[in-house]
From TrEMBL:
NCBIfam families in alphabetical order: HAD-SF-IA-v1 (TIGR01549), HAD-SF-IA-v3 (TIGR01509)
Name listed for the protein in its UniProt record: HAD-IA family hydrolase
Keywords: Hydrolase
Keyword presence, Methyltransferase: no
Keyword Hydrolase among record annotations: yes
Pfam family, one: HAD_2
Lineage top rank: taxon: Bacteria
InterPro entries: HAD-like_hydrolase_sf (IPR050155), HAD-like_sf (IPR036412), HAD-SF_hydro_IA (IPR006439), HAD_2 (IPR041492), HAD_sf (IPR023214), PGP-like_dom2 (IPR023198)
GO molecular function per UniProt: hydrolase activity
């Protein structure tokens, strides 16, 4: 068996507007000025408390917590109002192609909490697609490899039999720390050059090219 793990925000779904809005709502609730979307998106992939601390290095722990709470409330309100970040074009085709290989398992490794991930998968009809789901709940933030180590344990596989797909250097660094191959995508939130520098084996320019690379990897690894 082989395991393909996906990041979510910036990789499977285009959630940049929801994330930027929720973070600015959290900042506003804490009495702080809003930030530019690019600055906010630079920390996507980290667990929320870690992300807020990186955005506000000079603020107190109490201020961090107020922003975190405001972010969560804004996201919950948006979800209750029916806001669902869209899948990137080609994402579903990629999942379908990999699912057609009977020796490939699919998984998720995300900085989102399990509740948010579950709601997102349900909204897109993807609940049964992923063999393992690793989230920020109970794990250190990326790039710590704990999420990937748990996914490998679930699948009964070694890191040589798995690949991590993500859009941030945190994803790539996490995969490398776990001894796993890392594929980057250039439609997400970190520059392509940074993904290469972090150790990505490749950076796909679109979902068709990612799908082909993953199919080739799975078939080559299976043959080996």
């Amino acid at each position: 068996m082989k395991l393909v793990l996906f990041d979510v925000d910036g990789t499977l779904v285009n959630s940049q507007h929801e994330i930027a809005h929720a973070m600015n709502q959290g900042l506003h609730a804490a009495g702080l000025p809003e930030m530019e979307p690019a600055e906010i998106l630079s920390i996507v992939g980290l667990s929320l408390p870690i992300a807020v601390a990186r955005l506000l290095p000079g603020a107190s722990a109490e201020m961090h917590e107020r922003v975190v709470l405001g972010y969560r409330e804004a996201f919950a309100t948006a979800r209750a109002n029916g806001a669902v970040p869209p899948l990137y074009p080609g994402a579903l085709d990629c999942l379908d192609a990999l699912a057609s290989l009977d020796h490939v398992l699919l998984g998720i490794a995300t900085g989102k909490p399990m509740r948010g991930l579950t709601a997102l998968l349900e909204a897109h009809g993807l609940t049964g697609r992923f063999f393992t789901r690793q989230t920020a709940d109970g794990h250190p933030s990326k790039p710590h490899p704990a999420m990937l180590e748990s996914a490998l344990f679930d699948a009964g596989l070694g890191p040589e039999d798995a690949v991590m797909v993500g859009d941030t250097v945190f994803d790539i660094e996490m995969a490398r720390a776990a001894g796993m191959t890392a594929f980057g995508v250039d439609w997400g939130y970190h520059p392509t050059a940074d993904l290469h520098a972090a150790g990505a084996a490749l950076v796909a320019l679109d979902y068709p090219s990612l799908t082909q690379a993953l199919m080739d990897w799975a078939k080559l690894e299976h043959a080996a």
